[in-house]
Amino acid sequence: MNEQRAAQALAQLEALKRDYKVRTRAVVESLAVRLQQSADEDVLAEVESQLHKLAGSGGSFGYTELSRAARQLELKVRGLRNAADVSTAFDADGLAEQIADLGQHLGTPGDPLSGPRLSSRRATQDNFVVLLEPNQSEAERLAATLLQFGHDVRVKSSLDELAAEVGNQPPEALIIDLDCEGGGQDSIRRIFDRVQTLRDDGDLSQSVVFYLSTDDSTELRLSAARAAASGLFVKPIDPMAIVDRLELARQHRAAPRFKVLVVDDDILLARHHATILEAGGFDVEVVENPYATLDVMARFRPDLVLLDIYMPGCSGTELARVIRMHEDWLATPIVYLSAETDVDLQLTATSEGADDFLTKPISDGHLVAAARNRCERAYQMSMLINRDSLTGLLKHARIKEELINEVSRSRRSRLPLSVVMADIDHFKKVNDTYGHPAGDQVIRALGNLMRQRVRASDRIGRYGGEEFMLVLPNCRADSAQQLADDIRQRFKALQFAAKNQQFSVTLSAGIACSEEVADATALIAVADEALYRAKQNGRDRSEIGTAP
């Protein structure tokens, strides 16, 4: 987040804190007056509800003593309500005085329960890799492979050169040969320390760092892990292994900006939590009325729902059951965010369709971390369900579903849509000659290459075995063929290693366009026929299909 956004978030938090102070003074004064006027069950229920809110919110705004005192009074009132004869069970004037005294805790607030500072971090440049490799021939070999996958590689020969480069623009990845300073424990420690300094300065805060070494010992790997390394590769280096790890890191960073729905009748606290989450990188909407939740969910499509338990007219547990009645929301994480501290009640609540329970007041850092962990876990589960485990591409059923959706969109927009069916040539021979692990590496490499070459609007799937499908909206057949041939040529240039041998592989492709055929089934059939023709005509080529 840039400095302007950080300052804006802090200003919003300060404004909410001022509003909270004004509102809380009014609330405690009103509760004290009502208790002195009447001490019936309805008044006590309202007093307990308001004390519960204060117990859960004070700490978030810096009034930790207010939270503590309100919690004690809440438990006291709860006990009074359970008494057989409320009218004679307590001193109403004494309780009113204790509630009025809560205002004494609204002096100068201390620091709110805090987490990470709202600060800016320098964004990395996609596909930008800095390689520190003193061996020129090895540097050229690694850079050539990375270049085929669209990476801009800057080769450096010293730590000083590297530091100057990343100071200008933080790279997506840093690859460092641990022998660059002469080898030995002291030089390795200097490298780790220098990289850590760059991290502390913010230049590498979002970059992945890989190390290269001849040492495969647990001791070195432990040292690298302590230095926050993303990976350590043992020489001789297989460039494709680095490509795979770079792609995994990119997929992790490519997770969408998650959306959180906060449902809480305490609007100031809800807005406080929303501001913290937005500063943490989330899109957030707040719902004060629980009855509006489903309508907002249908429009907002949240990745996480944060629910208060105690809300008027509809409790959080009841709302969680209502949400789970809808098939669309069966897998959406629901987390209670409540001031309830009774463990048994928390366990009962989480059995009502929720995934976790967070206790208010909660630190800003805890809230952001818990929300991110839940969203990322749900995202990963969705990826496992919809994505091929080897390549990370869409599975057969999902890519066909995407094609059907894009065909409908193409008809509405009257823009062309193309489909590419690509198949690795003689793939069985690769498996038979070099082994299935080598075959898996070839498949992963093609998947990574395709991801690098397509647009954000395009869809890629592993259609089956060594066959892939590309769905290309707003793309005519000739443009689709140019893309297929670009991928084909780059794939052909890759060098794979297995069983002490180097080998390369080719692919063939067939293209179909909606200007020739109109529906998804026909597009697949025409592209398949064109692929078959490419195989028949010698392989390592592409063909454009026509309607039968």
TrEMBL record:
Keywords: Phosphoprotein, Two-component regulatory system. InterPro entries: CheY-like_superfamily (IPR011006), Diguanylate_Cyclase (IPR050469), GGDEF_dom (IPR000160), HPT_dom_sf (IPR036641), Nucleotide_cyclase (IPR029787), Rev_trsase/Diguanyl_cyclase (IPR043128), Sig_transdc_His_kin_Hpt_dom (IPR008207), Sig_transdc_resp-reg_receiver (IPR001789). Residues 415-547 form the GGDEF domain. GO terms for molecular function: diguanylate cyclase activity; protein kinase activity. Residues 128-250, 259-375 form the Response regulatory domain. The modification 4-aspartylphosphate is found at D177, D308. This is diguanylate cyclase.
